[in-house]
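Ticket #4471: structure export looks truncated?
Reporter: QA, pipeline team
Priority: medium

Steps to reproduce: submit the single chain below to the structure queue and open the exported record.
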Amino acid sequence: MIFDPITSRRNAFTEGMLRFLLETKYESSRPMGNVAQSNLGTVIKTWLVGLGITVAPVVPRCIDWLGRAIDTDEKFGASQDLYRCQLHWAKGIADWMDTGWESGEWERARVFEEAAWRYEKRPWPMNEIIKYGLDDYMAFAFQAGDDSSPDGLEAYENGIQMYEHWVSNKPPSMSHSRTAGSNSKGLRRYAERAETGLACGLSDRPQRYARHARPRRRQLISISPTVSFPC
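Actual output as written to the record:
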């Protein structure tokens, strides 16, 4: 479906709806981390239709509520590790929206994403990991990476190793890649080569490209069970 910001702004973001979003209060009896995820998804949609300034106070509020949920290990849903992943994922996005800086939450989201695959009551089979989990894992690994230092390349390597474990140990072709996973693996390889080239006194252009390139998510970024928004 083609995104129409004019129609979306007119039909979805009424004065009453925006007031409800701005006036939502913290309630200790509710899973407020999940509420914050939902609110953040709505804020992102408002950014897409030119209403970001109107709802600007919601972003730091979401960061606060997500932080509380993470600190208290708030319980929600069937899989606690999956919920932990979603909380760190949402907070990583919120931190970037608030400050423009990368967040340490991406590495934590990566760890809990993998842990969710081993859910005791129903471990994920291989086909579900590849179809539903691997792209997210690799996106988290790429966001957590830092090509400005050797230590920062470890996050890239985590993503590469996971891709090779579940899919293939052959380097993907960037010109033929069709998934976020294969694209992000290629970008990580490029970032590592750029780091090596810079250390040898070669041009820093590849490194600058690798730092700013980000893999596109396949279709949707989803940060809550009920809210999805286009990337």
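Status: closed, not a bug. The export was complete when the record was re-opened. Leaving a note from the reviewer for reference: Confidence is low (pLDDT under 50) at residues 193-231.
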